[in-house]
Specification:
Oligomer: single chain
Largest sheet: none
Helix content: over 70%
Distance between the termini: 65 Å
Length: 144
């Protein structure tokens, strides 16, 4: 029993160090535990402890994810939303984070991407922007 608790503590310490370096979600931690060859029967206990000690926080992760995807990768709302849903995060946190998008930055990103593709035919440019996660209405209402 004590050996199992010692092993659990060791993996928790390693997971806490991983989470302390950057925002991560439970899916990231599970993937990392698998890569580290941690006993997967301990994964849920490890993740529960990370939530208890606030090393994992779904709302905070969603906010950081949305910020970074808008600021550094110029993603649109749809692609960001799909990425967060793929990580199985709570819908309420996804919605809250999407509502916090800096509209000025978002529009600037869309215009920049549109300008970069200005020489493409409209349908090809529109397809490119939709693949980046922007809606047809957003694209249609944006001027280069």
């Amino acid at each position: 029993m004590e050996n199992n608790e010692s092993l659990l503590r060791e993996w928790i310490d390693k997971a806490e160090a991983y989470c302390a370096r950057a925002e991560h979600c439970a899916a990231d931690v599970k993937r990392k535990l698998y890569e580290w060859s941690a006993p997967m029967e301990l994964a849920d206990d490890i993740i529960d402890r990370l939530y208890e000690r606030d090393f994992l926080n779904d709302k905070r992760f969603c906010m950081a994810y949305v910020h970074d995807k808008v600021a550094y990768q110029s993603w649109g709302r749809l692609k960001i939303q799909a990425g967060l849903r793929a990580l199985q995060l709570p819908e309420k946190y996804i919605s809250q984070a999407l509502n916090e998008i800096d509209e000025e930055q978002y529009t600037h990103n869309l215009r920049n991407l549109s300008r970069q593709r200005a020489s493409d035919p409209d349908d090809k440019r529109t397809r490119f922007l939709m693949q980046r996660g922007f809606t047809f209405d957003e694209i249609r209402h944006t001027k280069c």
